[in-house]
Amino acid sequence: MKPKIIKGNVHSDYRGSLFYNNDFDAIKVKRIYVIENVDTQFLRGWQGHKIEQRWFSAIQGSFKIKLIQIDDWKNPTKTLSSHVFELNSKKLNILHVPSGFVSNIRSLEKKSKLLVMADYYSGEIKDEYRYKLNYFNSENN
Predict the structure, then answer these.
(1) Structural domain that includes position 39
(2) CATH of the domain at 73
(3) Fewer beta carbons below 10 Å: N end or C end of the chain?
(4) Is residue 110 domain-resident?
(5) Tally of domains in the chain
(6) pLDDT digits (tens, 9 = 90+) for 98-111
């Protein structure tokens, strides 16, 4: 399975705006949290999950998210290519990250907030993998 954007939208009228995503099925979500990076230079990553899947949505500001599908969790190939996505809070788009990927997340604006949804409770399984920021040296990273 590949990462994909589940498109949301916004309706605005004299009352204000309603942000919605009618195509997102939240049945698998067990927990949520929000990431706010310290500034736009900070890179959060590379970290990810062999089993867990995640969904990301920018609820304030914007983010660049790079994803790499891992081929060997103990010794991943350093030249794996990345998928690059940008999310912003103008619509309620949701990035689905299937199991098997690591992410690298950068805020593109100050005070940006990223909603993260996961399909396992914290501590339910041992499934967190981290690699140094300079581990992957592909042209796309």
Answers:
(1) 4-11+27-130
(2) 2.60.120.10
(3) N
(4) yes
(5) 1
(6) 999 999 999 999 99
Q: Give me the DSSP letters along 52-118.
A: --EEEEEEESEEEEEEEE-S-SSS--TT---EEEEEETTS--EEEE-TTEEEEEEESSTT-EEEEEE
Q: Would you state the structure tokens that stand for residue 23, as one six-digit string?
A: 């195509």
Instruction: Supply the pTM of this predicted model.
Output: 0.94
Structure tokens at 31: 């927990």
- Average pLDDT of span 47-56: 97
Q: What is the pLDDT of residue 1?
A: 87
d(CA 80, CA 57): 25
| pLDDT beyond 80 at 15 | yes
What 3-state class would DSSP assign to 27?
helix
Token pair listed for 89: 């809070």
